[in-house]
Design brief:
The structure holds two protein chains of two kinds.
Chain A lengths: L12 H21 L5 H14 L4 H25 L10 H22 L24 H26 L4 H22 L15 H8 L8
Chain B lengths: L3 H13 L4 E3 L2 E3 L3 H25 L7 H25 L19 H22 L6 H25 L23 H8 L7 E2 L5
Parallel strand pairs in B: 2-3
Antiparallel strand pairs in B: 1-2
Classes of the chains: A mainly alpha, B mainly alpha.
Chain lengths: 220, 205
């Protein structure tokens, strides 16, 4: 059996053990709350307990935030690739490669979080009707693609400080630069240059979620 | 007239006070955050010098589109280099003497494949160096630079293989969707062929 590569592979054994024991904690929380507990409630309880026990709650929060964005990107590209006539053949290899990475990022983050992973939200890529033709018009699709990729770059960049001193930092940086490669390439597909300037700006979690919220049907 | 050994001695003295040092003819970057910043400064010096020469010596078939891209990249690398020079102040290593003899500047292929090497190496170097920084402000600044290097890397790769998966090819991005991350000890040997003054990072991993 091949094992799914996870972020845990890159963590130190001590942290891995603590994160893994967190899964036991999750089970206990679910059991004590019984059938009344909805998934978000259980996650909130587990997160609080995890923090109280000195587990890296801040890291878990960052990874969940990242997973939300990766879910969004992965579903966006998978839907686009399955939409007949949307992506011209000339550009298809670009979006296949991007989709492959976003799906890999989802798996990586899910693996790292284990049972602390959040479920995939329901997305509305029309943003409540604003982009009705997102999967019919290549221009609308690439406009949103470019937005999501630049947003992802800014989001990971904004979280680097929260991961400083943890082994997760390097992995997050390795995702961050792949998102930047995507961002540049999508700009090129759109006929633009791949950057804004010599320095890319970060965005806070609140800024990123505000930008992503219109595309998340049920909110975060 | 000052002899080379006299200069070396004086540079060595200067750096002994600042962490970086000249030992056995090699420039050592010293320790701590200043060493990491000097490491980035060295790489940015190399990149800036390369693109400056590319613009001074345009290759055959240097069209307006290539010029716009390579001019933009050159300006970024100079801005990065100057950022580090200024941030390091008196702790900065001296200007490195570069050696691009192995690059055929009249060939688009030679220039762009060299550019690809530098950009991919830069991305992996920053990705691996983040964990070595203690100061959060330096980490934030490195983060704002590395994604621009990744944008360069994707663009250069796209010039070589337009609209193919190469911009984030399987040769640089692994099956988990991760870009490279290399330590100074892995990066410096790859940069050595392009630098006359050997640079060492004996106190960095």
């Amino acid at each position: 059996m091949t094992t799914q590569p996870t972020l845990l592979d890159t963590l130190d054994p001590d942290l891995t053990a603590r994160l893994t024991s967190r899964r036991g904690l999750f089970s206990r929380a679910a059991g004590s709350l019984g059938a009344l507990a909805t998934a978000p409630t259980v996650l909130a309880v587990a997160s609080t307990e995890a923090f109280a026990q000195g587990l890296p709650g801040q890291v878990v929060d960052v990874l969940r935030f990242a997973l939300t964005l990766e879910y969004l990107e992965a579903e966006f590209y998978q839907t686009a690739l399955a939409s007949r006539g949307l992506i011209p053949g000339r550009y298809r290899p670009v979006f296949q490669q991007i989709a492959k990475h976003e799906v890999a990022h989802v798996r990586l983050l899910q693996g790292a979080l284990g049972t602390a992973a959040i479920p995939k939200p329901t997305f509305d890529f029309t943003a409540r009707g604003k982009y009705q033709d997102v999967f019919e018009s290549f221009d609308t699709f690439t406009t949103l693609s470019s937005t999501f990729e630049d947003l992802g770059v800014a989001a990971y960049k904004g979280q680097a400080g929260n991961l400083q001193g943890t082994p997760v930092l390097t992995t997050a940086l390795q995702i961050h630069s792949v998102e930047a490669r995507h961002a540049a390439e999508v700009r090129r597909v759109r006929g633009f240059i791949g950057w804004d300037g010599a320095f890319d700006a970060p965005q806070t979690k609140a800024q990123v979620l505000a930008a992503a919220m219109p595309f998340i049907a049920g909110g975060v | 007239m000052a002899s080379a050994s006299f200069l070396e001695l004086n540079l060595g003295k200067a750096f002994a006070q600042r962490g970086a040092s000249l030992a056995g003819g090699a420039l050592d970057l010293g320790r701590g955050d200043f060493a990491v910043l000097n490491y980035a400064y060295a790489l940015e010096q190399l990149e800036a010098a390369f693109y400056t020469q590319v613009l001074q010596q345009p290759y055959r078939g240097f069209n307006a589109r290539d010029e716009q891209i390579l001019t933009g990249i050159q300006q970024h690398e100079v801005a990065h280099r100057e950022f580090f020079r200024s941030a390091l102040g008196g702790n900065a290593i001296p200007d490195l003497q570069v050696d691009f003899q192995r690059v055929n500047f009249s060939s688009r292929q030679s220039v762009l494949t060299t550019a690809r090497t530098f950009e991919d190496l830069g991305v992996a170097a920053y990705n691996g160096a983040g964990q070595l920084l203690s100061n959060p402000d330096f980490l934030a600044k490195a983060g704002s630079i590395v994604s621009v290097e990744a944008r360069h890397a994707a663009t250069i790769r796209d010039l070589l293989n337009p609209f193919s998966p190469a911009f984030a090819g399987n040769d640089v991005v692994d099956a988990s969707g991760l870009d490279g991350a290399l330590l100074p000890s892995q990066v410096l040997p790859k940069a050595t062929p392009f630098v006359v003054t050997p640079v060492s990072a004996s106190q960095l991993p």
